[in-house]
Predict the 3D structure of the following.
Amino acid sequence: MSLLDKYLPRTEFESYEDYYKNFAVNIPENFNFAYDVIDALAQQKPNERALQWCDEKGDEAAFTFAQMRDFTNKAANVLREAGIGKGDPVMLILKRRWEYWPVLLALHKLGAIAIPATHLLTTKDIVYRCNAADIKGIICVNDRGLMARIDEAQSALKKDGKTPALCYKAFLGTPQDKEPQWANFNPLLHSASADFQKPAAVNKNDDIMLLYFTSGTTGMPKMVRLDYVYPLGHIATAKYWHRVIPEGLHLTVADTGWAKAAWGCIYGQWLCEAGIFVYDYDRFVPSAMLEIMSKYKLTSFCAPPTIYRFFIKEDLKKFDFSALKYCCVAGEPLNPEIFEQFLAGTGIKLRECYGQTELTVSLCTWPWLEPKPGSMGKPAPGYDIDLVREDGSSCAMGEEGQIVVRTDKRKPYGMFGGYYRDDALTSSVWHDNVYFTGDVAWRDEDGYYWFVGRNDDVIKSSGYRIGPFEVESALLEHPAVLECAITGVPDPDRGTVVKATVILSKGFSASEELKTELQDHVKKTTAPYKYPRIVEFVSELPKTISGKIRRVEIREEDSKK
């Protein structure tokens, strides 16, 4: 019997309709992923590969389920000895180091709160997070710049007159590395006992397991609260979107600081008994990643469209994709050209999905559906999805509206429990049993959903509603465009006109002729009224620390001109 049989009454379905109607998850009391999944797999299949890791320098490591359990127990003993226990918030800034997995699982075993974060945080970012969540411990990579910023943040907390919760700092160093006021985690990890005594009461299902600070395009980051049932919500992610298989090897391209890692690098994949592949790199080189996919015989792969955009510029026929069966994409709408070229090079149809840090997979091109490039697909089981107008009424087919999740009948598996310590913010987006995503889409005659843009980013010009992603997608088809952002600029005649802020590809130079060429290209690629009347060439775009383009910042700068 597979592990999934414990949690799913049914695992196979005849159609999308059958899947949407009948998929269900058995939720046990006091579920804890570390004990109930990793320890169980270590017992059932101790010698099966759990994690395969390599970096861009050629170093590699592999861990069985038994070894992952042992390292998790070791990490739990180290953390318990340091005073970390139930309910203590601990921030993990571990990039793609393999130690992230046993440390995260150790926090689960202790009933502590894990806060994954990026190494790009500034001192100010760290201070904000420590104050907002009362962070007790930080474990980070061996990066002296990052460690200095953490030290500065700790000093700043003291200067604010607060008694800082932060009292434990550890880094992943070699045995000889020494840092004042820092614990060297790796030597402690390797020397610790692999026997761990489970606490009497670790967690309840609605206790906080994870906190993600979402770096939104406006305002301060929000703290998304995810409970211990959250991993079970990603069974659908791994089995029916990523299509991972037992004993297979899956790679989701994501830094561990982002929620995408929780989607594709741990929970659902191990619930499905698949091996997780981790490629640790600082600089993305398309050919190198393709070589890795070929060398390690990956069976499934997930990445944002940007990755595929670079892939199709390579000679895909040079690589061995014989083991690769399924590829997925998320993060922004997929350009049809990328879909077709990747299909021609690999024989694989890319399958898109939509979700948020607050949700799990909400809309998806499920296995029973034929992909429509650029479409997010259809709703996930458990998700009552609707599109609504500003007055809250439901949209008709083809009409644009905000994506909402209705929770009057059920709350989807894995959906967040609200924003931590901010009931007002929670109630502003989730009230009357309706969660408002802030994203705009439309639905076609086949029930497929198509993303338009964030509600704040949709441009209203001369009576038309123009979604930035559609225009950006059109521009990105032009070889001169490396990156771009579409925003609206106030106009006395049209109310608002479309502006394109463009980073040029190597070998192209800014000129009036190129502006006209790009405008004509958009007119031919999409509806002519959507073309950018203003084109500005820049060397970089303002982004959040998670890489999202801050269109609001572009609009603010334009308002000052």
